[in-house]
Amino acid sequence: MATVFIPSLMQSLTNGEHRVEIEGATVRQIINNLDTRYPGMKERLVEANRVKSNISVAIDGEVTTLGLLGKVGESSEVHFLPAIGGGSRLI
Amino acid sequence: MTTTDYERNVVLSSKTYDVVGTRPVRPDGADKVTGRALYGADFDAAGLLHGKMLRSPHAHARIKSIDTSRAEAMPGVLAVVTGKDLPSAADKVIELGEGSTNLMYLRDNVLANDKALYQGHAIAAVAATSPHEAEEALGLIEVEYEVLPAVLTAPDGMRDDAPLLHENLMTQELGEKTDKHSNVADHFQHSKGDLEAGFAEADVIVEREFDTKTVHQGYIEPHAAVALWNNDGRLHIWCSTQGAFTVRDSMSEILGVPVSQVRVTPMEIGGGFGGKISVYLEPVAAVLSKKSGHPVKMVMSRREVFESTGPTPGSHIKIKMGVTKDGKITAAQAHMAYEAGGFPGSPVGAGAMCVFAVYDTDNVVIDGYDVVVNKAKTAAYRAPGAPNAAFAAEQVVDELARRIGIDPMDFRLKNASKEGTRRADGPVFPRIGCAEVMEAMKNHPHYSAPLEGPNRGRGVGVGFWFNIGFESSCTISVNADGTVTLTEGSTDIGGSRASIAMQAAEVLGIPAESVRPTVVDTDSIGYTAVTGGSRTTYATGWAAHDAAQEVNRQMIERAAKIWEVDAEDLEMEHGVIKHRRDSELQMSFKDVASQLNDTGGPVVGSAALNAGGMGAGGGSFAGSIVDVEVDPDTGKVSVLRFTAVQDAGKAIHPSYVEGQMQGGSVQGIGWALNEEYFMTDDGTMTNSSLLDYRMPTSLDLPMIDTVIVEVPSPSHPFGVRGVGEANIIPPTPAIANAIHNATGERMYKLPMNPGAVMEAIRKQKK
Predict the structure, then answer these.
(1) Tens digits of per-residue pLDDT, B50-62?
(2) pLDDT at B1
(3) What is the spatial distance between Cα B745 and Cα B699, in angstroms, rounded to a whole number?
(4) Which residues of B are less than 8 Å from A17 in CB distance?
(5) The domain spanning residue B644 has which CATH number?
(6) In angstroms, rounded to a whole number, what is the distance separating the alpha carbons of residues B116 and B682?
(7) What is the pLDDT of residue A65?
């Protein structure tokens, strides 16, 4: 199972847990399974069927560019981070 | 000091190749040194009109009305546009360039809607038959403003009684919208371990506050764009940009046209440093073209570049760190508030990921705040957010080392991040070169050289920046004379044509000079993301590597056909195709190339890839060693000697890596000693010319020595790490630490100009 790290500002949804083991082969499956265990997670992370604009998902240390389609391995680490680019969010 | 007793440019090489790691002449050199290269403003077309922009004189004002009738009636004027001429934008998020953005904000930054949010915010534009007529017509546009109080710093913007820039903006906390109307667009927190326990374990704790100012990238070529909205509905843009596809996507979103209807030709670029990713002129020139039926050129003045494009933000940063007597960092805490400018989106996220990334620390809490203020919307600038963070954290690290009596480099080495270190934001570092960079600094003759004379000090600093992967495409066609043409979509800012071509040449086994690289428009190559995020040599070079492998595969097939053998029995080595068991069967790449038409026709290899996201390749560490002399009567700081050290993974073209290191160091020195947006209380910039905005020149600086460290990236075929950005991070703290060693005073604000240094010295005397 993948290890998902819960950001401190979201730990109110996980009863203070900061890392949890979750099944899932994609970011979408991980978030769905997280939401089943900790209701409200999906609402915080997903909007209009995509990862929210101010959130990035890092899988094994690298921010995925595939959003909900990002592949998650059996022993992957998944982090939810504030979204940024090599620059700022751009306008 | 003498400069002949040591090697000034060192490459600590890990592996040698035939082409990679050599220093061929750049393929675009002749055009550039003869003045024949065409930049944004050089483009011309029949029937060309000239566009000019009317900009807000107020930093914060409600736009009550705009009357363009007199301008429209002026002879020579063919079109006038305001924000109402852009399609109304939905409050939706789109993916562009290096990240995502809100379409409504993007549109309102291009042409203001109901409010001017910074001095220089575009209000209206005119297209006329000459630039002078367009300029004159701007004076005929009447705008009625209701001037509002301006907010100019992050701490002021965060106050409960601060004037609100966006009445509907509510603070988001990692996906959750709070119900608080505020100038704080975002708050996030990274945490790791037990901060309280970490500080309890510490023998020495240092807590300091720092301020940095708004700084511009200072590219020498102003923004320029030509738009032709043709009668067939196709829109063609020629512009100075770091990312033609990003411009295409931006135009599509802002103007509501399909991407297939937009073609963007990137001209040569006179510098960008992150500041030429966002669009400013392009959508306005397009609408003017549509209205007038002519191509329209718009070129910014230097003042417009300063006041109306995206600088890097000012910031307020608090750092608290604890250490044991034997030099182990036990806890680190940061509060980071960055100015976003008129719309949300400062680089505070990146700053927070980098602030303590250099050190393997168990207990960390970092709070980041993205705060809108009445300044131009910030944009990327070389390692955005990280120099601010390092200026603060690396001074506290230096102070801790001195308080416990450990050499600053030994202290850093003792706490250096390494493979397996978990950053405060969560991810674990793969193989990185942090300790190797620090060791190279410590071992450099500069670090141990005597520094004699009064008022002189030496300082060091270390910084980290990510690599971004993203999308790249490359096509290679073989010519009959054994050369190849290579087409790619990455704007060449710092020599990337050469570094991309060299990676192809290495795989093909031909000289670098036999590869002719060309940067092409968006209709002529597969999607390629921006030249930014230290990604181009990494990702487009990787695409060139893969395209060259595909060419080799086809060339082997042709040789097999000529020799009537099985292709699987053949291999290519150093540009020679040979049979594995029959040493008589050998043919060079050039020989096969001369027989392509007789063996089946052209050979073309293409590759398109997504080289990963942020964090691809592990990133790069950089360090600075600097000697300064402080004039005790004037406060002027002179840089006597400067050494830049950086992990390049594998330097494809060492001269261009050294150029990046020297350029980044010079920009860092500018941040440190002089550069700032000098603003009045009402938000007016008073130094928006290169005469008054003081950037370093060659007269201000010594030659910068370099050490390229090579710890190969685990993910790239040649081990490349992006080198474009990390080098700007360590100069500001290194210089601050050097000034401390020269004067005994800590510098808590940037820039450390003569006035600031004198203030510190006077305070000491009291």
Answers:
(1) 999 999 999 999 9
(2) 47
(3) 27
(4) none
(5) 3.30.365.10
(6) 13
(7) 84
How many distinct structural domains can be found in chain B?
3
User: In this structure, what DSSP letter does residue B700 have?
Assistant: G
Please report the pLDDT score of residue A91 as a whole number: 33
- The pLDDT value recorded for residue B615 is 81
Determine the 3-state secondary structure of B120 from DSSP: coil
Residue B213, in any domain of the structure: no
Within a domain: A88: no
Domain presence at residue A89: no
The closest of B297, B301, B299, B300 to B44, measured between CA atoms, is B297
* Contact (Cβ atoms closer than 8 angstroms) between residue B173 and residue B294: no
In angstroms, rounded to a whole number, what is the distance separating the alpha carbons of residues B463 and B645?
10
* Residue B190 lies inside a defined structural domain of this protein: no
Of the candidates B345, B365, B425, the beta carbon closest to that of A91 is on B345
Query: Could you say which of B557, B577, B610 is where a domain stops?
Result: B610
Let me know if B3 is exposed, middle or buried by CB neighbors in 10 A (0-12, 13-18, 19+).
Answer: exposed
Band of the pLDDT at A88, cuts 50, 70, 90? Answer: very low
- Assess if residue B734 is contained within a domain: yes
Domain that holds residue A60: 2-82
Of B575, B610, B645, the one marking the end of a domain is B610
Does residue A91 lie in a domain region?
Answer: no
Rounded to the nearest 5 percent, the helix, strand and coil shares of chain B are 30, 30, 40
Please state, in angstroms and rounded to a whole number, the distance separating the CA atoms of residues B113 and B741.
51
Question: Chain A 25-84, CB below 8 Å of chain B: which residues?
Answer: 43-45, 52-56, 58, 60-66, 77, 79-84
DSSP B265-316: EE-B-S--TTTTSS-SSHHHHHHHHHHHSS-EEEE--HHHHHHHS--BPPEE
Statement to judge: residues B576 and B650 lie in one domain: no
Whether residue A61 lies inside any domain: the answer is yes
In this structure, the answer to whether residues B142 and B284 fall within a common structural domain is yes
Q: Would you tell me how many other CB atoms lie within 10 Å of the CB of residue B523?
A: 14
| Residues in B touching A55 (Cβ below 8 Å) | 174-175
Structure tokens at A7: 């950001």
Residue B571 within any structural domain of the chain? yes
Asked whether the predicted pLDDT for residue B94 surpasses 80, the reply is: no
Q: Total domain count for chain A? A: 1
The model carries a pTM of 0.95
Torsion of CA B237, B240, B243, B247, to 10 degrees: -30
CA distance A18 to chain B (A): 9
Do the beta carbons of residue B368 and residue A84 sit within 8 Å?
no
Residue A85 pLDDT? 44
CATH code of the domain containing A44: 3.10.20.30
3-state secondary structure string across chain A:
CEEEECCHHHHHHHCCCCEEEECCCEHHHHHHHHHHHCCCHHHHHEECCEECCCEEEEECCEECCCHHHCECCCCCEEEEEECCCCCCCCC
CB atoms within 10 A of CB B361: 25
Report residue A74's pLDDT band, with 50, 70 and 90 as the boundaries: very high
The token pair that represents B235 in the structure block = 């829109």
- Residue listed under structure tokens 């002027």: B636
Domain extent for B657: 1-16+430-463+618-766
- Cβ B188–A52 below 8 Å, yes or no? no
Provide the 8-state DSSP code for B537.
Answer: I
Q: Are residues B446 and B480 in the same domain?
A: no
Looking at the structure, tell me whether residues B118 and B8 fall in a common domain: no
Q: How far is CA B711 from CA B112, B418, B442, B539, B714, in A?
A: 48, 12, 17, 18, 9
CB contact under 8 A, A88 and B426: no
Cβ contact B721:B708 at 8 Å:
no
What is the per-residue pLDDT for B612? 87
